[in-house]
Design brief:
Shape: globular
Distance between the termini: 32 Å
Oligomer: single chain
Helix content: 10-25%
Number of helices: 3
Radius of gyration: 14 Å
Length: 135
Amino acid sequence: MFTLTQAIDAPPTEVSRAFTEPEPFAAWFVADGFTTPSDRVSIDARTDGQISAVFVGAGDVEVPFTVRFGEFDLPRGVVLRFDEPAEEITIKFEDLGDGRTRLDYRSEGLPADHEPVTKSGVAHMLGEMASYFTR
């Protein structure tokens, strides 16, 4: 289990778009050496819906992935579930006023040896999300 927090210069209703619209999702859901083109993202934004997308890397490397929505209560929060490896992610948004949001990210279920690299990757992703909303 690990937790991360990210301050974002946008209100929760705007930050919620990162989970409901392909363009903002693609801007932050990236991995080292990979992008997620927005035209390769499909989002069914509802409880039991899913996000299907493709990481694209050098040399035409493609890594498709799917994440399922659990609880869907935007703009207050959302639960995401990956199957392999099994992981449940709880994301909560707190309105800080002045058009700012505190995002709390909690990951549970990953094997302990996956946590350090996953935490580092997620910290990078959350930084990308914050950058997207400050453009």
